[in-house]
Amino acid sequence: xxxxxxxxxxxxxxxxxxxxxxxxxxxxxxxxxxxxxxxxxxxxxxxxxxxxxxxxxxxxxxxxxxxxxxxxxxxxxxxxxxxxxxxxxxxxxxxxxxxxxxxxxxxxxxxxxxxxxxxxxxxxxxxxxxxxx
Length: 133
Description:
Blueprint: H1 3-39, H2 46-73, E1 81-83, E2 89-91, H3 92-95, H4 98-102, H5 116-126
Antiparallel strand pairs: 1-2
Helix pairs in contact: 1-2
């Protein structure tokens, strides 16, 4: 078997295992924060609020990694981003503009789309010059 295939498969298993551990840690910390809030006699004590805040922040830190992995693999759709046919993302606020949708994609030397400010400069250069007599 090819060494790169075996290494890639092993890496996928490691990432999956680490993501599962992170999800379990985040769920456990959320459960502990809820348990601490419900079992405390007084909710608004300094110790109780500190413990709940620390648990929630740690749960957030453990949940970020699996969420970013799902987003990078395309398994987590973002609500305000629409995917084009070529796989590039287009914000929903830009869909209503006629000039942006009608213009063909301007790509750099490596095939990446250029930023809007560069596109504006290129469009300005392509306009015919009117010389005054």
